[in-house]
């Protein structure tokens, strides 16, 4: 167990160095900020047109941020980020080097997964802070919108957390795709295809079993009154990503590097 | 006798239906510099990938340091440094950061980076991003990566690829130094025998996935001595052949005017001429020829593997 921890911590710090001077870190910070920033501008300039006076503006603000994000941007962001980080390894021909190192084979997969998971959590953290910060900034700059009169830190934090859990399965799936296949276009292309499939089929009654819908269902719990902390899709997402992770890990251990 | 550092037994490997390696029995003694030679597509890189556990053999066993590779992968690889084909470099990182990635992965001490940069003479350029490196500089960095863990066994796939003549010489000196001063065993692949002739202690010649020769470089040199011949053009081939056979030479008839005769030394040509003339044979032409080591190597790898005349070149006139 101790040696396993040593391998993981060494590997993780090595992986972290590899993303230096790449877009990965910027993407994790800028993608959430750009969503919040865009919504911010809309509220700043046009907020008085669609917010009723004396009503709670936070609900509209959060819903606007959550829904666009969960439906479209999260899957695309995850496809892009995983393809970018695993792509550097494919491009440099680094797999043969990694798998010839005196470390157990599973560490290669695990280290990359953990690094990307950290980036994803960083992105969600940025998103969460941006939403809260943006709301209070609006309350200060445009007091007539009324942001300063209400407080929803808890429910917004929960909302962001729900989407994070709801998107884990997409993350793991996209991770495995980009880990396995050299072509960046393939993993991003499939990501787009799967997302489009969800948007097209969103009225289908069984769409709730489709992984690319899970962030949306998780986000929708924010609006629903009295929803539990965990909506069913979040459980699906956790279970399915655990399964995909194990299959990916198993496959990575018996992979031949040609 | 000590167990070889690397030994493979009846190693087979195939890509799909294509059989790449057949019955490979490698023996790399400890403390040797083993030159693994073969033309393009012979299977050198495939063999190296097998030795590092990157590929699984279809059949056969691989032992390194007396341990079975499959079951002791991590333990074995701890003692190995490798460069496989083109070095795996992160082009957006500097040379030093590339080494740092590897250092962190292996948990080595920091000072080792400067040591290997010094060895491959990249200290000056260590801060530059690798995408600005020339081919030779990338190659040096790849070798630095292989040297980083200070391994007992170095496995280098075409280490001189892309190096300039002085770089090649430096590489030879470096390999000799590592071998003689630091006692490292080196397994390296190459296309060119001439490039490695002066460095290696042992050679293995691979052709179409089969080992055509394996042994000390001196044994290969001995083989070239067997390839010294005199070609004579004479009036009466039958008579000439009789005389030469009587003298105890191996003789091969080339056409109705020419014979090829095996000799030990160049001086024998004069004696041959004298005997033939005294025996009443008109000698029109007489030429001495010797195959260089490179030619012997080429003759082993030019002919298709199933053509038995390939081995005939090695032992030219045994049938006489
Ligand atoms: N990924 C692969 N898939 C299928 N066949 C392959 C693959 N890699 C190599 N081969 C085949 O295996 C054979 C041996 O290739 P290998 O790379 O081992 O040769 P090599 O001796 O290293 O040649 P070179 O001197 O050009 O580096 C070749 O016939 C090649 O076509
Ligand atoms: Mg090769």
UniProtKB/TrEMBL annotation, chain A:
<keyword id="KW-1133">Transmembrane helix</keyword>
<protein>
    <recommendedName>
        <fullName>ABC transporter permease</fullName>
    </recommendedName>
</protein>
<feature type="transmembrane region" description="Helical">
    <location>
        <begin position="65"/>
        <end position="86"/>
    </location>
</feature>
<keyword id="KW-0472">Membrane</keyword>
<feature type="transmembrane region" description="Helical">
    <location>
        <begin position="113"/>
        <end position="138"/>
    </location>
</feature>
<feature type="transmembrane region" description="Helical">
    <location>
        <begin position="23"/>
        <end position="45"/>
    </location>
</feature>
<feature type="transmembrane region" description="Helical">
    <location>
        <begin position="184"/>
        <end position="204"/>
    </location>
</feature>
<keyword id="KW-0812">Transmembrane</keyword>
<feature type="transmembrane region" description="Helical">
    <location>
        <begin position="158"/>
        <end position="177"/>
    </location>
</feature>
<dbReference type="Pfam" id="PF12730">
    <property type="entry name" value="ABC2_membrane_4"/>
</dbReference>
<feature type="transmembrane region" description="Helical">
    <location>
        <begin position="234"/>
        <end position="253"/>
    </location>
</feature>
From TrEMBL, chain B:
<dbReference type="GO" id="GO:0016887">
    <property type="term" value="F:ATP hydrolysis activity"/>
</dbReference>
<dbReference type="InterPro" id="IPR027417">
    <property type="entry name" value="P-loop_NTPase"/>
</dbReference>
<dbReference type="InterPro" id="IPR017871">
    <property type="entry name" value="ABC_transporter-like_CS"/>
</dbReference>
<feature type="domain" description="ABC transporter">
    <location>
        <begin position="6"/>
        <end position="233"/>
    </location>
</feature>
<dbReference type="InterPro" id="IPR003593">
    <property type="entry name" value="AAA+_ATPase"/>
</dbReference>
<dbReference type="GO" id="GO:0005524">
    <property type="term" value="F:ATP binding"/>
</dbReference>
<comment type="similarity">
    <text>Belongs to the ABC transporter superfamily.</text>
</comment>
<dbReference type="Pfam" id="PF00005">
    <property type="entry name" value="ABC_tran"/>
</dbReference>
<keyword id="KW-0547">Nucleotide-binding</keyword>
<dbReference type="InterPro" id="IPR003439">
    <property type="entry name" value="ABC_transporter-like_ATP-bd"/>
</dbReference>
<keyword id="KW-0813">Transport</keyword>
<protein>
    <submittedName>
        <fullName>ABC transporter ATP-binding protein</fullName>
    </submittedName>
</protein>
<keyword id="KW-0067">ATP-binding</keyword>
């Amino acid at each position: 167990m101790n040696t396993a921890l040593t391998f993981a911590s060494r590997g993780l710090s090595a992986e972290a160095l590899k993303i230096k001077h790449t877009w990965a870190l910027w993407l994790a910070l800028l993608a959430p900020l750009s969503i919040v920033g865009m919504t911010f501008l809309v509220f700043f300039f046009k907020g008085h047109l669609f917010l009723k006076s004396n009503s709670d503006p936070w609900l509209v603000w959060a819903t606007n941020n959550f829904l666009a994000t969960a439906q479209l941007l999260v899957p695309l962001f995850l496809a892009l980020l995983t393809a970018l980080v695993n792509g550097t390894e494919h491009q440099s021909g680094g797999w043969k080097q990694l798998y010839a190192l005196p470390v157990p084979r599973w560490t290669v997969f695990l280290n990359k997964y953990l690094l990307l998971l950290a980036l994803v959590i960083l992105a969600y953290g940025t998103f969460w802070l941006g939403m809260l910060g943006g709301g209070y900034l609006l309350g200060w700059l445009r007091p007539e919108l009324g942001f300063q009169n209400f407080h929803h830190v808890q429910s917004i934090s929960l909302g962001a957390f729900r989407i994070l859990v709801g998107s884990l399965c997409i993350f793991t799936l996209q991770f495995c795709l980009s880990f396995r296949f050299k072509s960046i276009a393939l993993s991003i292309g499939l990501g787009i295809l799967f997302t489009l499939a969800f948007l097209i089929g969103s009225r289908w009654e069984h769409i709730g079993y489709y992984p690319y819908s899970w962030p949306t269902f998780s986000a929708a719990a924010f609006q629903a009154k009295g929803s539990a902390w965990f909506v069913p899709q979040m459980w699906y997402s956790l279970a399915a990503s655990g399964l995909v992770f194990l299959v990916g890990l198993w496959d990575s251990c018996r992979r031949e590097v040609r | 006798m000590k167990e070889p550092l690397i030994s493979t037994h009846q190693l087979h490997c195939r890509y799909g239906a294509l059989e790449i390696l057949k019955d490979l029995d490698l023996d790399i003694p400890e403390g040797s510099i083993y030159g693994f030679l073969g033309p393009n597509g012979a299977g050198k890189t495939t063999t190296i990938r097998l030795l590092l556990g990157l590929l699984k053999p279809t059949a056969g066993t691989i032992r390194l340091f007396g341990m079975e590779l499959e079951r002791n992968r991590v333990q074995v690889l701890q003692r190995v440094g490798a460069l496989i084909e083109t070095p795996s470099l992160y082009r957006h990182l500097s040379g030093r950061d590339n080494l740092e990635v590897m250092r962190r992965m292996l948990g080595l001490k920091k000072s080792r980076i400067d040591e290997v940069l010094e060895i491959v003479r990249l200290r000056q350029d260590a801060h530059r991003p690798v995408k600005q490196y020339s081919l030779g500089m990338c190659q040096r960095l790849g070798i630095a990566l292989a040297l980083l863990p200070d391994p007992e066994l170095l496995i280098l796939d075409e280490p001189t690829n892309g190096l300039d003549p002085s770089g090649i010489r430096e590489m030879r000196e470096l390999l000799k130094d590592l071998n003689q001063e630091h006692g490292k065993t080196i397994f390296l692949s190459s296309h060119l025998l001439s490039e490695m002739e002066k460095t290696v202690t042992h050679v293995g010649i691979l052709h179409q996935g089969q080992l055509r020769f394996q042994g000390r470089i001196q044994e290969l040199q001995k083989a070239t001595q067997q390839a010294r011949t005199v070609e004579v053009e004479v009036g009466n081939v039958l008579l000439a052949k009789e005389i030469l056979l009587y003298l105890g030479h191996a003789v091969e008839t080339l056409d109705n005017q020419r014979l090829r005769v095996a000799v030990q030394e160049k001086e024998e040509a004069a004696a041959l001429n004298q005997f033939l003339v005294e025996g009443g044979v008109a000698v029109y032409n007489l030429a001495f020829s010797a195959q260089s080591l490179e030619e012997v190597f080429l003759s082993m790898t030019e002919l298709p593997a199933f053509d038995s005349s390939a081995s005939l070149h090695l032992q030219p006139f045994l049938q006489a």
